[in-house]
Amino acid sequence: MNPNRSQLAGLYIHIPFCAEKCLYCDFYSITDLTNTGPFLAALEREMGMAGRTTLTFDTLYIGGGTPSVLGAAAIEHIIAAAFIHFDIRPEAEVTVEVNPATVSLEDFRRYHQSGVNRLNIGIQSFQEENLLFLGRIHSREEALSSIDWARQAGFDNIGLDLIYGLPEQDESCWLYDLDQAVQFNPEHLSCYILTRESGTPLDRELMAGRIRLPTDENLRKLFKTTVDHLTNHGYLHYEVSNFARQAEYDSEPWVSRHNSKYWSHAPYIGLGPSAHSYPEPERHWNHHSIEKYLQDIRHGKLPIAEKEKLTREQIIMEAIYLGFRTTHGIDLADFERRFEIDFSKTFRETIEEYKRNKLLKVTKTHCALTTKGMVMLDSITAEFTSQDWP
Question: Residues 104-124: pLDDT tens digits?
């Protein structure tokens, strides 16, 4: 295993503010915006400390939370500061997440002028009843306007987020959202299954028996519908939940370069409350509290809550899980180079079993889950990672 493989890194900045919390969200965020000024000052001080790394970056992702609640001037300042404190390539992919209710055409224009070249718009649904259920603060009309404004502002790389697997949602209801999205010809689509996370309002509603999520069988059908529909409309299914529009003239599809780093075990640095960093083989994460975050920065300390040094076994298990998340799968030669393990021989019996059940496909160079297998990602990965290896 060579933990020092030469890879360009990703820089993630977590904005911990939202206008309102959504029903399903368990990311760290707060709705009290009084600390936005101190946060922005602290963030730049954190950049000064964390920027002493030797890593070179080719992606910058500003997420949250809802970054767009800060306003365009703050986003401009964050991007300028990041390029000062970190070695970021001039051609880097620079993404900002936005909520349709918190942006205007002028905001998009300012984002574009400040160096943002990719937008991730949290649409979630084009149907008012779904938006209301999810606790989204935007309307269908605001969703439509935000996409239109983004194009007017000059963006040619737009990603839309959608959520499915809502209570009572059937195939026709979900296809309506997919069709609405495809009409805008976005470069990227992320289609997430509504997931129960402990402690969220969704979790409490489910525990009280007031709502029910679809059965596993229905979710499998909706997942297959998603893959089939988007593939038929020219999108490459490249990760469990992610689809990239096929580009013209044989150029690369519009994959998210930043998110791809997480799935390929590339190094990344995270800034802001709750953000994670991974300079292999160490992982560390910041406080899930803006108060503790601000306190550490005031004392001239990096706001790290905990850190862990991953063992060889942990890195191997993560490599298997992350590899199976992608339709590309596990690169057999790269796996053997990194870990000195012949994947095909070591897991021969397990591979053969899943191949027989059409859950796994194997070529001379890769081992990957089928569409049917991707629905069972967690259980299949557990089978591989529970085995002994050299």
Answer: 999 999 999 999 999 999 999
